[in-house]
Structure formats: structure tokens, C-alpha cells
Amino acid sequence: MRGLTGPMVLALAEAEAAFARGEVPVGAVVVGPTGTILARAGNQIEATADPTAHAELLALRAAAQALGTPRLVGCALYVTLEPCPMCAQAIAFARIARLYYGAEDPKGGGVDHGPRIFQSTSCHHRPDVYGLIGAAPAAELLQRFFRDRRPGKG
Amino acid sequence: MRGLTGPMVLALAEAEAAFARGEVPVGAVVVGPTGTILARAGNQIEATADPTAHAELLALRAAAQALGTPRLVGCALYVTLEPCPMCAQAIAFARIARLYYGAEDPKGGGVDHGPRIFQSTSCHHRPDVYGLIGAAPAAELLQRFFRDRRPGKG
Which end of chain B is more exposed for a tag (fewer CB within 10 A), N or C? Predict the structure, then answer.
């Protein structure tokens, strides 16, 4: 995690905790307008039997609870993997100001791949997007997770 | 609601209840493989301060809780409005077999408008989609809601 500081380090720690739980290792952190950590979460799909329990959605919901409003004006989201279309649209609904993501996701991403949610006519709020922040450790963790689960690995 | 039967009538009732709570009037129902109603919900964004609390997401999560799995294989979702990109992707993640929706949503929809989530390379499960089921009462409810909130209406 050389060179990485601040919220993305916390997001990676959430991804590692998700890995240890047997979840796809993705972690997310929401930072408030003054730099306060409002929420942090890792994937919880299997543990909670919730198909929507991606790290980003859990962190957005927890941050909204913390602030008492569904509109996270001036907040930033840090996530270890490019958000999927579901999470990208949730980021837009939540009015997130800045999105920082780690590894890119050509197969399932919805920000710089696939439907490119923030460029769509259906998107009415666009965060500033900074990709490939801390990409190497985030990608390594994901590769290790899926390698361990490859059929034939026993 | 002439001609409408079954789950879409329940979804419309959820939309009307959302209207009465001051939420954008959208309702959703998840039906199991044998026709059982697994979950029903209306929008709860303002009431719960949750930017992701669309009717579809709430119904999908409740149905997954009811079945104890994030994968709603063989289930159908009925919703009064064309799902947004967030909900469309959640429907794909949840492995919903059939989607029935009411009014179309050219500005915010993500199924037959905007990013057309199910046609994207990032979508790995595509439900059968049946649009404009009970569209008239669903659209009338939405039009009434937004008319009441138009600036200058006092």
C-alpha cells in the first residue's frame, strides 16, 4: 500500500475483512465535507443474504443515517473497485461530490466501463471521478480471492 | 385499475401508500416461483433518510431475507414504474426471472431508456421484461404527486 494514505487505506482494510468473511473483497468509505469518516463497509452479500449489499451501498446508507438525510452533499466516496452500475447510480442519487476508486472493472464496472452511468441521460448528478487510486493492492486482493475459488482448486 | 389483477394491484397499493407518506409514489412486489407474495414495498427515501430506498430495492432485500438467499431464482418483480439503473442492476444481481413494470420513465428509467442496463456488457443476468402493465393508474399517481409539488402551487 506504498504511497496510499487516508480513506483508501481504510477502504482496503474493509476489503481485506470482506475477503476473510468469504465475500468478494471490496471495501468503501464515505468522508464528510470536513474530512470526518462517516461510514466504512465491506461487501456483505452472503453474510446478510442481500443481493444489494455491496460495500458502496452499505457505506452510503450508513453515512446517510449518520447525517440524517439521504443527500450526502459535499461528501466523498472511496472504494477499492470501480463501482457497478447499481452503486454508480446510488452514488448519483446520494449527491456524492467526489468518487475515488481503486482497481478498474472492465467486466462489471459501470463508471468507466459498461453503461457509464454518469454519462447517461438518466443521471442527474455527476460526481468528480478519480480512478486507479490504490489500484494495485485492491486488484491483487481480488485476483487472490477469485484464484482461490477457481474450479479444480479443490 | 380496470383489467389489472394480482401483484400489480398490490404494487399500486404500495405506490398509493408511498404517496400518502410524501414519497415519490412507486410500489413493488416480489412473487416467488409458486406464486407466493414474498415481499411488497413502496419508496421510503425520505422516511428512512436512505438514498437507495427505492421500492424495488426494498422489496428485493425483503424477499431475499424471506428466502434466506441473495439469489431470487424463478421469482418475478412487479413495479409500478420502469426501474432506474440502480434498481435494474439490483434486479439482475438478484437473478429475477421476470420483470413487469407499469409506467415508462424516459428521464430516469434504466431498462428501456437511458443506459438500458440489461443490454449492457456489464449485465450478466437478464430477466424477461414486460413493460406498460397497469401503466395508466401508475402514471396518473406520479403526475398527481409532481403536480402537487410544482413550485408556485403554494
Answer: C
Q: Scan for cell 411488497, then name that residue.
A: B40
Three cell numbers written together for B83: 426501474
Measure the CA angle with vertex B48, ends A82 and A97; round to 5°: 35
Mean pLDDT of B112-122: 97
Whole-structure pTM value: 0.95
DSSP state of A33: T
DSSP state of B84: P
B30 Cβ under 8 Å from any chain A Cβ: no
d(CA A146, CA A11): 19
Whole-angstrom Cα distance, residue B78 to residue B130? 10
Task: State the residue for C-alpha cell 461530490.
Answer: A97
pLDDT score at A86 = 98
Check: CB of residue A102 under 8 Å from CB of residue A8.
Answer: yes
